Write the structure tokens for this entry.
Amino acid sequence: MQFFLDTALLAEVEEAAALGVLDGVTTNPSLMAKAGVQDFDAHYRAIAALTAGPVSAEVVSTSYTDMIAEARHLARLAPNIVVKIPFTPEGVKALRTLQGEGIRTNCTLIFSPLQALIAAKAGATYVSPFIGRLDDIGHEGMNVIRQIRQIFDRYGFETKVLAASIRHPLHVLQAALEGADIATMPFSVMRQLFNHPLTDKGLAQFLADYEKLHASS
Ligand code: G3P
């Protein structure tokens, strides 16, 4: 399973890359705004230079024609840019065209298995079901991952399942168990994956025992 970082903060991308567990990055216009980005193109190039993995850059156009023009522009910024396209009828049309042009896409704002099926039929490289936002409204986001996995396996779709809107480590675990290809997560969640109190306690004990031996010799 691949780990992507869901962020537009360069410092977080750098830190995750240094940990050696970063397989890619996803952004969206809200994350770009939160990071205070003004020059989107320069920022996408900067993120793309920090990882060899795919970097999702989202279109802000809504019509097919404008999405295609924007997607071509974004794809030219760096070889590892993947264009994020919202799941709308216009977006689905754009997925097929972009696939024909060899531009990789990430179909975002997926909330049902049937939306994912349509995006896969249209040639999306990735689909991004939003787990946390489904949980927020009392649905079980993980059911969507399970059903998408089942459908893609049954029909042999190569579209990757990218579990998004991840809020905590349990989401990552469940997505892994359900067979998601990728989990994209905030940096805070990625850091939490490393933590276990018994690891800390065990290490403290090992070091204390070593020190005792050292002190008495
Ligand atoms: O990037 C898409 C997705 O991960 C957004 O997550 O936390 O805004 O629901 P969230």
Q: What stands out?
A: The pocket of SN-glycerol-3-phosphate is lined by residues 6, 26, 28, 130, 132-133, 164-165, 184 (CB under 6 Å). The domain at 2-215 is CATH 3.20.20.70 (TIM Barrel). The radius of gyration is 20 Å. The chain has eleven helices and eight strands.
